[in-house]
What we know:
The protein has about 475 residues and is of the alpha+beta class. The chain is built from 14 helices and 18 strands.
Amino acid sequence: MVPAVNRARALEELSKSHFDLLVIGAGIVGSRIxxxxxxxxxxxxxVDAGDxxxxxxxxxxxxxxxxxxxxxxxxxxxxxEAHLERIALMTRVAPHLVRPLRFLxxxxxxxxxxxxxxxxGLFVYAALSGFREAEIQVVRPARAHDLIPAVQLRGMxxxxxYEDAQTHDSRLVLATVAGAAREGAVxxxxxxxxxxxxxxxxxxxxxEALEVSFEHAVNAAGPxxxxxxxxxxxxxxxxxxxxxxxxxxxxxxxxxxxALAVPLPRDRVAFAVPWLGMLLLGTTDSExxxxxxxxxxxDEDVETVLKEAARGLPPELLRxxxxxxxxxxxxxxxxxxxxxxxxxxxxxxxxxxxxVVSVAGGKLTTHRxxxxxxxxxxxxxxxxxxxxSLPGAGPLPPRPEALEADxxxxxxxxxxxEADRVLAYPGAAERIHPEGPDVxxxxxxxxxxxxxLTPDDVTRRRTTLDIRGLTxxxxxxxxxxxxxxxx
Length: 487
């Protein structure tokens, strides 16, 4: 087994070593920068004020997609790049975490689009992917009903069928952090940068204050990127704005053979996506001006999600009392005016007065390209974009004979080729909750191998307990006890 995480040793290295690169923020972009930087031979430190992937990177729509909705915006280069990245992630980088998913986009009479326009858009979308799509066509309502029996047929003229992919976003972050650590990066969560000087960062870890020496620094703090920029240059003008997106999780539907994407005004789309045996609905898109750490789901947000989903689904599937979980995330957009839904989804890179490179925005799908763009801004030869596999992307081990099939399917999705390591603990195969596939070995593995420090780290980002609505007070108490004995 990979040696257990040693937080004390990492903190000692953080304070005593001189780093070629300090990365502030360990969402999907920051963790990838740390991974690629380490593979390029740099001595890298990766820190986050919270847990790895605790904000936007664990609150996405879980999609790895080309961005069909970006066609009206004219972002053809972004769509092309996203297609290439989707294929690389799905086939080589993290095939256990990124899997193909068919989408059905219905065309209703009186809706914002017409069949001819959708057909033309599909052709362009396929062309931008190099016609690598497994299935892309316009189908009749009867075929749409075969794929999604619950879809609203009244008023449907036709439907577009195309392929994208989905992922478990927080697990993708953890796999990338693990990759960076195995390449030699020093990674520390719950380590907040409180001040920045030329070549020196002041970091608070609990009640302890550390000084981290570095040659170059990257600010990849997501929704907090402008706040970190102000540590370098107080009073600097913001380069980003925020948009809130809310998602709702409902009980699963077993007979869906595709996800549903219903066109909305403002070039938006309402998603209904089968995910981990549940139905993920979303998302909203509204400007957010508050504290990023205080973003939350309101009753109005939930009502909006359910109302928009009802354009393509029956009301009995969308009852509020069926909601298992909801979450809010923040998109980071370039500063500007106008509707956030119509804002371009490209990333922003800014070099500060003391040389700190700040990056924000972009898409989960293109996080590797964003990381490469950032590393190009640093001195030296930029690393090549390689399709090396993340931890867990190797051949799957055989299923243990006594282990139930649904548990093994769950573990191989989250951990891939390293799933058997989760079962190496006494009592590891015992289900945490009888209605879910998570097992107690995941809790111990999270503490020893995945930097989990709090119950939320385990229930929200390293298992699927929270999103299934299965975290009971008794379970939380036992997880707290197990963490106290391991951390």
